[in-house]
Design a protein that fits this description.
The chain is mostly helical. α1 runs antiparallel to α6.
Amino acid sequence: MTTLPEDAIPEQEVDPAPIDPEMEQSLSGAYRRILRVAIALSVAGTLAAALFFTWESGLGVAIGSLLAYINFVWLHRGTERLVERILASNKTTTNDTSTPRKIRFAFPFPLRYALLIGVAYVILKSYPRLLIGFIVGLILPIVAAMGEGIYEAVVISKIDQA
């Protein structure tokens, strides 16, 4: 978020600091890299759980990672829409009737968690052997995002040193 200098007029726009094109290019693919790593971790985790434990564990990892992947994609899309709406509302000062209602943006966020809770409840009550694999599967996209954060930190440090 850009903060205004003390002597700036509130209606003035403040330009953010220029971004290095090389850094922008390397960081712009973060979302795609996270998705690819999450898929690779999900496949590897499913195979490892099925081979080293039981097929129920592998199925739990597959279900958990699929649900976490869908949740991650929905979170990304919802956040993009929210940011686009905020930027559009900042640009228009008149009341435009074509802007979507707030409920359209507020409803999907809790719906994601309701889906997760519902699936976890069904697994807990009906298939308790899948539960540990399911929880591990839910964690895999988070591990992918953490890996991306480490990757970006290394890339940025290399660009800054150059």
